[in-house]
Amino acid sequence: MPRRSRKDSIALASVGRLAGAISEHPREFVALLMSTIAVTAILANALFLQKGPHPAPIFATRPLLAHETALAPRLHSAQPTPSTDNGNQARLQLITNIQRELTRKGFYDGPTDGIWGSRTDAAVRDFIQAAALKTNAEASDALLKAITTSNAKPGAAAAASPDPIARLIAPTPSKRVIAVQRALSDFGYGQIKATGVFDPDTRAAVEKFERERRLPVDGQISDRLVRELAAMTGRPLE
């Protein structure tokens, strides 16, 4: 019985010393208590709560629902596949075929490079005029088919004139005038035929263009006029 009383006394003394230490250093005791709780939580999570390999979140996150997991692949697969390269390649091949057919028919003497430049544009327009077609000078399958199946020859429109004397005294067509006439006609400055001859209709169209562009109105095909037309059409005229 005395031995048991001695143990109780020792325990009471230990509790008293602990209470005294806590009262003297309350902040340190709180910090120690919080650290102990944190370490215990980490160990419990690492040993018992994690379902996957370490490291993992301390607290488990909400698992994705079935419809959410299926949505991500659908969104990824819905992105369109770029097809710009295929379109550019098809246009390049189309223009190359048009150039090749124009060369075979004698309308074109430039490179078959698939580039729609001023020489290709002029050759297409010459063919359209010689074949008496009503179509735009633009690369298309219909234009390629028309060139392939047509029997039109270069200069056929000029050779169709019934008056040989008129052909002899007529002025020589100018490529520069033809390019200007085509540009003015395409952009609505008059119903002009691309004959290469500077006629009154062409002069009237030039004057209309000069007034709208606020240029000096003289009705002449000058270098400045050609530059302004080239800037408007986006392609060289010569």
Would you mind describing this structure in some detail?
This protein is mainly alpha-helical and 238 residues long. The chain has three domains: 42 residues; 76 residues, Orthogonal Bundle (Muramoyl-pentapeptide Carboxypeptidase, domain 1); 68 residues, Muramoyl-pentapeptide Carboxypeptidase, domain 1. It has eleven helices and no strands. The protein is rod-shaped, with a radius of gyration of 45 Å. About 3% of the residues have low confidence.
List key phrases describing it:
238 residues, mainly alpha, Muramoyl-pentapeptide Carboxypeptidase, domain 1, 3 domains, 63% helix, rod-shaped
Summarize the structure.
This protein is mainly alpha-helical. It contains eleven helices and no strands.
